[in-house]
Structures are given as C-alpha cells and as structure tokens.
Amino acid sequence: MTSPLRQLRRAITGFILVGWCVLGLGFPIAKAETIQENKELLQKGLTIYEIDQELMRITEQEAKLQEELKTAEEQLKLAEASSAEARAHAAKVIRAYYMGDRDSLWALLFTIRSFSEALASLDYLQMILKNDQQALRRHTETWRQLTEVKDRLTKAQTGLRQTKSNYQEQRTRLAALQQEVDDTLAENKETAVQLQQQMLELNRLWHDKGVPMLRTYFQALGDALEQLPELVTSGSGSGNNLIMNGFNYTFQMSDRELNDYLRQKHELFTDMTFRFAPDKMTAAGSRDGISVQMSGSYELASRDDRRNGAFLRFRITELQFNGYMLPSTTIDALEKDFDLGLYPQNIASFLQVTGVKIEEGKLSIMLKLAL
C-alpha cells in the first residue's frame, strides 16, 4: 500500500518532469525563432547595403550618360551643319549634270588643236570630275555620320530614361526595406544596438572579403570557360565529348569533367564544386571562412559581335554569401562585369549552337554545321 508521503513525492517528481519537458521544448523553440528572426534582419541589412551600392553605380552611370548625351547633341549640331553644306554642294553638282552645264566641258575635246592643249584640257576635266566625285562622296559620308550621331543620341536618351526608372525602383525598394529594419529594431530595444553591430559586421565582411573573393572566382571562371573547347581539341576530356550525327553534333560534358578541368586551370576551384542538376548548374565552396553558393542555367542567346551569332548565356538565379541571399542588383552587376557564357563555335568556326540541355550530372550542347 502506497503511503501518503510516497504519493506526494511521486506528484512532486511528476510536476518537475512536466516542468522540464515544457522548459526543454519551449526555450529551444523560442531561441530558434529568435535566431531566425535575427538572420532575417541581417539578410535585410545586407540587401539594403547592396541596393545602396547599386544606387551609387546607377548615379555614376547616369552622370556618364548625361555626358554622352551632351556630347551627342553637340556632335549632332556639327553634323547637321556639315551635312547641309555637303548637301548643297552635291545638289549643285547634280543640277549641273542635269542641266547640261558639264556638256560644254566635254565639247572642249573637239576644239583641241595641239597635243599640249589636249593634255591641259584633260587635266582640267579630271580636276572638275574629281571635285564633283568628292562632293558627292562628302555628302554621303556626312549623311552617314549624321545618322550615326542620331542613333547614339537616341540610345543615350533611352539609356538615361531606363537608368532613372531603375534608380527610382531601387530607391523605393530600399526605403521599404529600411522601414522594416527600423520597425524590427524598435520592437527589440534591448538588443537593437547589438543587432545593428551585427549588421555592420556582416556588411563589412561582405565588402572587405566577400566581394573581392567572388569577383576573383568569377574572373577565373570566365577565363576558364572561354578555353573550354580544349576538352575537345586537346583530348583532355573523356574522348567522346563531341558526338557526330550527320550534319549535327552534340558536345557533352559531365560535372566531374568540368570540376577536373577547372581545377587544372586554377587552384581556386579546388575549394569549389560544380554540379549539373535538371535544368540548372550549381556551384558551392568555401575558403578563409567565406562560403559562396550559386545556381543558374544556360540559355540560347545571340549577339551581333560574335561570329555565327548564337551562344549560350549563363543566367544566375541565386547567389549566396555565408548563407545569406544576395539581391538581384548584385547578380546583375556581376553578369555585366563577367562573361560566363559558352561559345561552342570556338571548337570549330563552322559549328553553330542550336540548343542546350542540363540533366543530372551532364551538360549537352546541340550543334549543327553553319552552312
């Protein structure tokens, strides 16, 4: 039979165990929520910093476009004046031929009485014809220059409008994020100073180490990808990277081959691993306490300044630094500064890319003869 004292002990023990369970489950959950909230706040702080950097880049770009616009407007005035003068001169020449004014010059040939007069007349005729041709050519050239200046002016005006629109859009986004951060800090007055210090430290780490490291990676990656056709031409790949089927070809590469190739090109990539997954390529690595992660995909594109036009442009869909997402403004800036595209025609000038497919562990590029 259980004594009242033993029952009391059991009750107290049960109460303590329940209390431990509540404390043991409740505190970690609350702590996890706090950590997640703090990370979201730091994420917003990093995004604000990067948008602010983008606004500075836009401001510099706007100043450059303003200068280009001013120069183009000045050139347009000069080109219009020069074109008007050349047009007037050319009109006189054309009118002279149309009205028969030049016929009398050819009639001189029938009044020649000596060899010396013939030479003098021919020299005179050649001089006039040469001046006429120069006037017509000058008109054509000034018209071409005027057209080019107008095109530059139009592009500068369009670029300026787009730049101002982008600036306003990013400015609005920045203000909204800043308000969210201010509201969060106001709700956490006890830890506000500490959180602000953490945001500053994260931004400083990104600026001092993250940015230089990421740009170094992108520069090395762009240089290595430009030489990627070596896998075929040097035979350093698997030996069957280029598969021929009539007039069509397929360039195939596994992610293992890509990693081996990149590590041969630069020691940086010993700390980085690339992987092909369905419809995307990912890369992840860390060095000196800095971790980066990227994912993106290749798309068929064309550019006039490339032979055969078509190439494969790499579009970054996600970029992380130490677990924090970097905003689209950072991605856009990196894509402008570094070319991670693939140009299969570098394998052979007679090949043209027609498509691309990324699947688990493998990249396939479809090619055809550029006839």
Automatic annotation (TrEMBL):
Classify the source by domain of life.
Answer: Bacteria
Gene3D superfamilies noted in UniProt: 6.10.250.3150
TM spans (from-to): 12-30
Sorted keywords for this record are: Coiled coil, Membrane, Transmembrane, Transmembrane helix
Write out the coiled-coil annotation as residue ranges: 48-89, 160-205
Name of the molecule in the record: Uncharacterized protein
